[in-house]
């Protein structure tokens, strides 16, 4: 990689090495794409879920979407604090997100629960994996942000998985 590729586009007084700013900025944009994709998937489920459990699931999926919007704002603003560009357009998110593709519609409420469980789990587990990378790069602020997001996503995943336990 050339030296130029290791410099963030904007100068910052944050005293982390340039290559760290770029590496953490990329991580933040990867996680940003995840959670924005999750937000879209949760709204898709919120709008289209049907059945006897409509009301609680309608509200649960909306709560997931609202949390994802907050996570996205914090991830994007951390990337900018590090001198990087926050890449949150639909096109950028579509190109970068590695979440399972969300169907436009499914045949049951349980299928929507599975869709959102998979999307939430991807977001939580990817953020969890990046905590150590941020900490190893001495960026404790990003590590702390990812830790908070992972904790909140794990909690939402519990709510979703609990609906799938029929026993
Ligand atoms: Fe709504």
From TrEMBL:
Protein name: DNA-binding protein
UniProt keyword annotation of Oxidoreductase present: no
Coiled coil segments of this chain: none
Stretches assigned to the Ferritin/DPS domain: 28-166
NCBIfam families: PRK09448.1
Similarity section: Belongs to the Dps family.
Domain of life: Bacteria
InterPro entries: DPS_DNA-bd, DPS_DNA-bd_CS, Ferritin-like, Ferritin-like_SF, Ferritin_DPS_dom
Keywords for the protein's UniProt record, in alphabetical order: DNA-binding
MF GO annotations: DNA binding; ferric iron binding; oxidoreductase activity, acting on metal ions
């Amino acid at each position: 990689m050339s030296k130029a590729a290791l410099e963030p586009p904007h100068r910052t007084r944050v005293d982390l090495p340039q290559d760290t700013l770029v590496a953490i900025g990329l991580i933040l944009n990867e996680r940003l794409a995840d959670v924005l994709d999750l937000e879209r998937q949760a709204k898709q489920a919120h709008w289209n879920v049907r059945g006897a459990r409509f009301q609680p699931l309608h509200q649960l999926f909306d709560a997931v979407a609202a949390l994802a919007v907050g996570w996205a704002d914090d991830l994007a603003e951390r990337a900018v604090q590090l001198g990087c560009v926050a890449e949150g357009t639909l096109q950028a998110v579509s190109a970068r997100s590695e979440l399972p593709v969300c169907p436009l519609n499914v045949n049951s409420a349980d299928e929507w629960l599975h869709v959102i469980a998979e999307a939430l789990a991807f977001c939580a587990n990817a953020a969890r994996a990046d905590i150590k990378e941020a900490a190893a790069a001495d960026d404790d602020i990003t590590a702390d942000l990812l830790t908070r997001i992972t904790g909140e996503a794990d909690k939402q995943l519990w709510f979703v998985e609990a609906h799938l336990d029929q026993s």
